[in-house]
Amino acid sequence: MRVVVTGGDGFIGRNLRVHLQELGEQHVTSITRASTDADLSEALAAADIVFHLAGVNRPREDTEFVGGNLDFTKHVCALLAAAGRRTPVVYASSTQAVLDNPYGRSKLAAEQALERYGLDTGAAVHLFRLTNVFGKWSRPNYNSVVATFCHQIARGEPITVNDASRVLRLVYVDDVVTAFVQCMEEGAQLRGYREAGPVYETTLGALAGILQEFAQRGSLMVGRVGKGLRRALYATYISYLPPASFAYEVPRYGDARGVFVEMLKTPDSGQFSYFTAGPGITRGEHYHHTKVEQFLVIQGTARFRFRNIDSGATHELMVRGGAGHVVFSVPGWAHDVTNVGPDELVIMLWASEIFDRARPDTVRTKVHP
Q1: Range of 350's domain?
Q2: Is the same domain home to 105 and 156?
Q3: Could you tell me if 260 and 244 lie in one domain?
Q4: Residue 44, pLDDT score
Q5: pLDDT at 71 (0 to 100)
């Protein structure tokens, strides 16, 4: 399929082009400000679908809205009509198209020009009224407050929150691209106004708080970032880290037995760490009432021993590094682990609770007194 993306070097355009490449859409032509009218005409004449993302939203003069949004869209429509191929168009409009301001009026007029093109030619036209799109590669101090805050916080710069109660409606760029690509797959089956989402609603103050929380790497704490708005914001924030911040150090606690290193803590799902032990070294030798641990042997050979502190029942097992076996510490069972191999033992550990020195739930005892 021959795909044309106007505004291909913009924020949404770059994300879209990457996704199209992943789908195997090898014939993607990006139209940018550097493209000539001949480039545009040639690309549109052969296009199987057009993603019309080019436009003006921050001009020096309001009159530029008409030229960049309406007039350019009319020109695109005329070139497509002249090609006579009924080429579908996906248009990135704005929720401001319903507002009586220069930008909104220009976007609404562009929508109407595209609708006329669709009626005159029979081509499918998909109109997306987007709101506050955010994600990787968005320009700070230009595309969105999310981009600006992420850029500043990732560099230790102060942010300005003028009205913490201001309501924001946000949509993630990956969700926008998914909706765009779906139009390409559906062809002319559906047309008219389309939605990209979910659309997340939050406040400026809440947004600032979430992003500032992400920056607290020294505490090793990371909140819930696996779904919804926080998932999208976390990915966006991390994408703004300068290369010098791609890595950071975590505390290492060492003694004659080896080292213990905490990597990551969560508010309500425990923490991740790892520890080492030299040949012949035994670690653990304690039990828990409530805390649960899971051990994954990465390197070396480990002997795990267990004793039920009530019944006295015992259990023992051997695990080699790389075997992919996870071993539990079970509440009420004393446990230890011994390096019984010639090499250093390295074990990854997840604990169901963050270690609390005031209430450690760790009672020292030998597995075999």
Answers
A1: 252-364
A2: no
A3: no
A4: 98
A5: 96
Q: What is the pLDDT of residue 189?
A: 59
In this prediction, residue 188 carries a pLDDT of 55
pLDDT at residue 329 in the model = 98
Structural domain contains residue 181: no
Q: Which of 91, 103, 237, 287 is an active site residue?
A: 103
Sequence-distant (6+) residues with CB within 8 A of 277 are: 257, 258, 283, 300, 337, 338, 339, 344, 345, 347
> What's the pLDDT at 80?
98
Low-confidence ranges of the chain (pLDDT < 50): none
What is the reported pTM?
0.91
| CATH number of domain containing 155 | 3.40.50.720
* Residue 248 among the catalytic residues: no
What is the pLDDT at residue 186? 73
The predicted pLDDT at position 143 comes to 74
